[in-house]
Amino acid sequence: MQMVTAAAVALALAGGAAPAATAHQPTATAHQPTATAHRSATDGTWRMDGYGTVVSIRGGTFQEYQTTAVSCIQGDSAQRTGPGAYTLPDGTVLTVRVGGGRDRASVRADGSVGDRKLSRIPELPAACTRTDPEGPLAAFDVFWQSFEENYPFFSAKGVDWHAQRDRYRPAVHAGTTRDELFAVFSEMVEPLHDAHVAAQDGDRIFAEPRPGTVVPNGKLDADTKKFILERDLAKARNLQDFAAGRITYADLPGGQGYLRISGFGGYAGADTSHAAQLAELDRALDAALGRERPRSPNGLIIDLRINGGGSDALGIHISERLTDSPYVAYSKRARNDPADPTAHTRPQAVHVTPAQGPRHTGPVAVLTGGSTFSAGETFVQALMDRPGRTVRIGQPTQGVFSDVMMRKLPGGMTAWLPNEEFLTRSGRTFDGTGIPPHFTEPVFTKEEFEKKRDSAFDRAVHVLRRHGGTTG
User: What is the DSSP letter of 6?
Assistant: First the structure.
């Protein structure tokens, strides 16, 4: 049940440690009901709608089983820490709610924007009670089948997954080495150019972003931030860093506000709880949007050009500071039929409700590029139907929106893949292509650095100053 963000992918590819999930482990108290008190409500065996998952809840333990037509492999387990709450070893809290005649339930990970639906089944599938398959060929079959049953984008990517199996499976046998098998998996997924797809073997990870784009990493973030400080913010006032440097705010000379966000998480050091992330985010937003800041009709620039993603919920939280009217940010759905890539779960609408704190409801210019990943992109999508004027400037985003499924393979390797789509009001998804800008400008190119230009930033200042954020 572990969910991985593009931030983790980016850090792994850059050689850094992936951040722990933004979740909070509740402290037990004398008033918490015991596991026995909740056995009748949540205990049992459940099949998840989509996600290739069966869940067993018994004796205070939430146990995941990752299933395909050829396998059932035991996944993560969580322990009950409160009424309907189960905490994974990394601190992520899973909340299970039973309803619909007790044969229907839902589970939500702390900080997520959507639920996963559960249906009660009599017992574990037979494959889950047998010994896991072993050997390179078994690993290959589970790897291929996991994508076959869950990946939604083969047609859009122009990749024949059956042809990949026919090409590579004959080369795998009992004597295939670990390095050879990792190379096979890497070659199989490389044509997808999907930054939410990866083959992992311990610290070794292969992932391939969209051609012509760069995966966000610490050096890129530091270099571009230094450039922005020296070039764009040299004459700015009230320059402040928040959230361990991941958020920067400044008042520009022309009256606009500038808000740079390099990720949606990692805000509170060792405290990875969702509550801690929200507290740091609110501290930054209060300073940026508070009554003491000079308000200006010239609007707010939000810079997401280097953003490795993180928690979608934090993006929704910011959106709630940018509107006076409720609206739907987007809808989520997941592929849910192993034999039909066009079948999906019922779309779940994700709502934006105006926040109680200080808000900015004037024009917004959002700077994006190919290094705007995952939760950075869902935040951009959440602003598309914002009631205030919003304009996008720069380059298309990366084109990866889904949570990432981590599927264990026989022998210890792991496959990472998406299975969700984020839909606009008209039912469109931007997976693969990314969200396009209204105004196209170069973003952190070699020429821009050499000539000390930031065309996207300058365009944003001009648009807000002269046109109030209109796209015409």
Answer: H
